[in-house]
Amino acid sequence: MTTGYQLKRADFIFKNQNDWEEILSKNIIRNPQDLINDLISSELKGRGGAGFPTGLKWKLSAEAVNDTKYVICNADEGEPGTFKDREILSKVPFKVLTAMAVCGHVIGAKEGYIYLRGEYFFLRPELNKAISEFDYYCREINFDFTIRIFMGSGAYICGEETALFESMEGKRGEPRNKPPFPSSSGYMGKPTVINNVETLAHTYTIFKYGAKRFYDLGVQYSRGSKLFSVSGDTPKPGIYELELGMSLSDFVDEFGDGDTKAVQVGGASGFLVPRKRFGETVIGFQGKLTGISLPTGGSMMLFNSSRSMFNVLDNYLEFFREESCGQCTPCRVGCQQLLNGIKAVKRGEKNAMYLDKLLRLTETMQYTAKCGLGQSIANSFSSIVENFREEMIY
Amino acid sequence: MEKTLKITINGVTVEIEQGTSILEAARQTGVIIPTLCYHKDLCVAGNCRVCVIEIAGQKRLAAACATPCEEGMEILTNSFKVRNSRKHIIELLLSEHNADCTRCYKNGNCELQKLASEYKIVTQDFIRLVESKNYTIDMFSPSIVKDDSKCIRCQRCVRTCAELQGVNALTVAYKGDQMKISTFFEKSMMDVVCTNCGQCINHCPTGALVEKNYIEEVWDAIADKNKHVIVQTAPAVRVGLGEELGFEPGIRVTGKMVAALKRLGFDAVMDTDFTADLTIMEEGTELLTRLKGVLVNHDPEVKLPMATSCSPGWIKYIEHMYPDYLDHLSTCKSPQQMFGALAKTYYAKARNLNPETIVSVSIMPCTAKKFEANRPEMHDSGYRDVDYVLTTRELAIMIKQAGIDFMKLDDMHYDRLMGESTGAGVIFGATGGVMEAALRTAYELVTGREVPFENLNIIPVRGMEGVKEASVKIENPLKEWAFLDGVELKCAVAHGLVNAKKIMDSIRSGEANYHFIEFMACPGGCLGGGGQPIPTSPEIRRKRTEAIYAEDAGMPLRKSHQNPEIVKIYKDFLIKPLGEKSHHLLHTHYSARKRF
Amino acid sequence: MNPISDLIRNLADQHGRNRQNLLPILQGVVEQEKYLSEYSMIEIARELDLPASEVYGTATFYSFLEHKKMGRYIIRICKTITCSMKGKNQVQLAIQDMLKIGIGETTADGNFSLLQTNCLGFCHMAPAMLINNDMFTELTPEKVREILSVYMNKKKEGESNDNRLST
User: Fold this and answer.
1) B356 and B261: one domain?
2) C52 touches chain B (CB under 8 A)
3) By percentage, how much of chain A surpasses pLDDT 90?
4) Which of A324, B402, B479, C146 sits 20 to 30 Å CA-CA off B529?
5) Does residue B29 form part of some domain?
6) Which residue spans of chain C are classified as CATH 3.40.30.10?
7) Do B9 and B75 touch, CB atoms closer than 8 A?
């Protein structure tokens, strides 16, 4: 695939949030159906990593029949290599709060929560200040919507939407069976819209500039811009807003240190792309890694040739082994088998063919695990083992 | 009209009710999807992932137990993907499992073992994780043994203890690879609010939770020529034992059971139903005494409602959760303990035996009875009243070990002195049975007439509803009981501790105005007890219930006070109910325990 | 009255006594006491009318709700890949050297505990660590020694209320 997909910067998220009062009052008097149509025609997809069409999500919850509904902002950013949501909440919190309120207007919710991960406790004082200012304005314009912060306590799995609900309900963060889906039964069993921080920030852009402005960025199936958290072996670590649809080779040209061996796209739940595939990989929402494009929460970790891919995979598997909720067999035991397995192959206790058995195991985990955590382990495992097999053995 | 929809399972189109899960729909079409975490008694968990099936058009497999059918779904339960995934899942479970089956108590009756056998998991490809873990075995409780190395974390026990029993002794703790089933701060089952009801054992698919067994101790006692070993059998055992020995659920095996016990070598085979009748005499009198105390003397020390006290799981529950209501409990011991106390006094004297040589064994459908026999106050005979308690399951094991072909046995009768019983005694095994037995005697005692229910069958207290109520109006009583004229005796029956909580809360709030309440810890009453054959299900418990009431209906005597051996024991030994001897041997006290 | 029971009652008054208020209450106790003792869990169970096992099962799920006694200052050093790549091990060794404790241990004077944690969200300023709720990034062995000295002096004056991001 050629690189007709270039690296294009954008600047919407962190730009001026001072007009939030205007944006809020303008949009809460618009017809909810119009707002939904805006989101649908913008083709905005969730920016947390799952990529669910936001317009459709709001539509489903709006259609659900219930007196009580909720809007929840998922700020349980825990994916390794991701740090954009923290930045949004510290620099432009009013965009998020406004977006939540508009969502409340669209679906008929009067309460909003920000599920903030425990590690970001230090953000609370400033965020609380923003919330009281926001609250004050809402009361001034007679808009009934209250936002509260709910603190997490150190559990990556609570970023999964149904596990988040369980956590907010005072229980262990164990993902639920789906169906039912959050749009009909979410927090406290009520219809809930749960969106990632960045997704909400983008809805603000759409409500401010209109759907077309957003749609014009990016490429087919992957409209709009996205924040990328860049770290690892790069001279330019940080957060960058880029249009979707760039090729990975252009990305590496811009951000690599000249010796980039591989890029982990989408954190530990994402894919590792080796150098030989940079050209044919496009960052977007075209589904699973087909050599064409990848869904992503925006975490980009660059590894140069000094890095051992075995150590990288080992690190990811340790992460999943600890952070899995432990309820379902394929994930709980599968993680342990994968971790022990690669260690055994490396130590020579098991034959290299054992890696193939583990690859088949990750397929089973992908098909049978109860939630996204277990289902995604296959992504990094297979992409690392298939592309760097020698490093697993020698 | 129920809404239906059409789906296809393995190419066969079927019409099923809306809301049916794929698992249920498959069952209706003759397809059995294997499960582990699913249980009819409990809410759906969907965590073992054994029941995954393929839905056309979906890349991921879905859990059949947790997915409702949708119109037009095409389901494959044995496709290539499903088979391979299921095999992997079983292999994963086996890798973190202590798979030393030949040395496991549940060998032959383990759901994981059955699955592994069906799928012919004959190779160990994955790494054995068991060795690197610090699994512990909790053997401190007198009733339950918890072996973490065999746990598959299906959470059935946690759901049972929470939903079915409302005790919450077990919980899930930690996460990731550390996730385990635990108690509060990982204390022994003995040190937390566990009531020993054993429902967790009944629902555990593997050998992670089993009863503490005393089979070898009982064999040793039988083999000891210097010991006189007597055995008592609980009412519920005779309708459950058959299931372990080749019979369908609901077949009564009383006569065969007695024959088997004799062949095992017990010196005397007698019946707990006898002391059940005795309990009615004592408890019925106690109830009437309390009624007099409240209605005539207005004595504030006398408490109503009075609660039955024969379920040790219930006793431990109220001691923990409602210690301020202990004086509402009848002071009567359970039939098991009454028997134990009499065995080493009344029986010993009558047979001219040195009580020191008597070993008193009981066969119970219950694991809490093991705890009860262990209670420090149960020594009124001067010795430990009941030495060993065996569950129905343990008895079946002994019968098999002795090589007895149970089905071929001819019926035999219980031994004399403490082996005669009435229908009122046998119905103790079902929820509502104690209440019914008590009413049959108490009503007649007070009015001189039989209870006003057809054939003595007090239907309102029977059945599987969690809380049942009945009231009996006393009219034209005998002169002695004139104070009860016009009184409507209000009774309630609860089974399953979650229902006991309902009643106790309503008493605490002042809502309830009962006189007499029967509490049973286990769903269905003793016939669903923690020591009964596994598996259990609402259907199986229903069949056992039918058997109990059939046994009652077929007995020549159906009221406790008619039992000739009861008449004899009062004449020769106890003198009268609540008399001095009864007080010493047949009544007990309780201890307040901490709520947490 | 017992200070912990008082604390719990106040937290329950503040947040509510329903199941959905359990997490804030657990967090409140950990905030002040640094960990959840058996006693505090029982008090919470009593206050919220929950089984003690449920409180325990919920608390042990979350990594930040410690149920073993911890030091006044809990150091959580990130061990995820990018921090590993940028020198986390050296920083960890410096801490271990200075405080004479290993991972999972607490200093004898009860002031510091050292734990590892997962991605803290500062991968572009790695390595990172938390000391209680304060975040420290771009660590080096020298820097971490400086930071720890500040904390060691703090204990003479009292707790810091500094929740800002410190670099």
Assistant:
1) yes
2) yes
3) 89
4) B402
5) yes
6) 73-166
7) yes
pLDDT > 50? residue A330: yes
**A36 half-sphere exposure, CB direction, 13 A CA radius:** 17
Q: Which fold has domain C73-166?
A: Glutaredoxin (3.40.30)
- Phi/psi for C70 (5° steps) reads -120, 165
Instruction: State which residue of chain C sits closest to A240, comparing Cα positions.
Output: C124
Q: Same domain for B346 and B245? A: yes
| C118 reaches B (C-beta below 8 A) | no
The pTM score is: 0.95
The 10s digit of each residue's pLDDT in B484-503 is 999 999 999 999 999 999 99
Nearest CA in chain A to B80: A364
Contact B125 A357 (CB under 8 A): yes
Tell me whether residue B568 is one of the annotated catalytic residues. Answer: no
Same domain, B397 and B377: yes
Q: What is the predicted pLDDT for the residue at B200?
A: 97
Q: Give the pLDDT of residue B469.
A: 95
Q: What is the pLDDT of residue B134?
A: 86
Q: How confident is the model at residue B125 (pLDDT cuts 50, 70, 90)?
A: confident
In a domain, B397, yes or no: yes
Contacts of A119 in chain C (CB under 8 A): 117, 120-121, 130, 135
Residues of B with CB under 8 A from a CB of C: 162, 167-175, 182-185, 192-193, 595-596
Query: Are residues B140 and B201 both part of a single domain?
Result: yes
A266-280 pLDDT per residue, tens: 999 999 999 999 988
Q: According to the model, what pLDDT value does residue A339 have?
A: 97
- Whole-number average pLDDT of chain B: 95
pLDDT digits (tens, 9 = 90+) for A12-55: 999 988 999 999 999 999 999 999 999 999 999 999 888 899 99
The domain total for chain B is 3
Same domain for B185 and B122?
yes
Per-residue tokens: B139: 């053997």
What's the CATH code of the domain at B363? Answer: 3.40.50.1780
Of C46, C53, C61, the CB nearest to B184: C53
Q: Is the pLDDT of residue A3 over 50?
A: no
Contact at 8 Å (CB) between B145 and B106? no
Tokens of B209: 């939770």
Tell me: do B37 and B17 sit in the same domain.
yes
State yes or no: pLDDT of C162 exceeds 60. Answer: no
Residue C156: burial class (beta carbons within 10 Å; 0-12, 13-18, 19+): exposed
Chains that touch B (3 or more CB pairs under 8 A): A, C
Q: Is A265 helix (H, G, I), strand (E, B) or coil?
A: strand
Domain boundary among B45, B78, B111: B78
Q: What is the DSSP string of B62-108?
A: EETTT-B--TT-EEESS-HHHHHHHHHHHHHHHHTS---GGG-TTTT
Q: Note the pLDDT tens digit of each residue in A84-136.
A: 999 999 999 999 999 999 999 999 999 999 999 999 999 999 999 999 999 99
Instruction: For residue A376, give the chain B residue with the closest CA.
Output: B60
Determine, for residues B174 and C51 on separate chains, whether the beta-carbon distance falls below 8 Å: no
Domain residues for the domain of B180 are: 93-211
Give the distance from residue B320's alpha carbon to the nearest chain C alpha carbon, in angstroms: 12
For residues B371 and B222, state if they share a domain. Answer: yes
Closest-approach residue (CA) in chain C for B159: C54
List the single best residue of C85, C129, C165 to mutate versus A (max A Cβ within 10 A).
C85
Q: Give chain A's domains with CATH numbers.
A: 20-215 (3.40.50.11540), 309-393 (1.20.1440.230)
Helices B433-447 and B272-295 sit at what angle, rounded to 10 degrees?
60
Active site residue B372: yes
Residues B52 and B157 in one domain: no
What is the per-residue burial (b if ≥16 Cβ within 10 Å, else e) of B114-129? ebbeeeebeeeebbeb
Instruction: Give CA–CA dist B253/B547, Å, rounded.
Output: 10
Q: Give the Cα separation of B548 and C157 in Å (integer).
A: 75
pLDDT value of residue B51? 97
Domain boundary, last residue among B192, B211, B230: B211
Report pLDDT digits (tens) over A371-393.
999 999 999 999 999 999 999 99
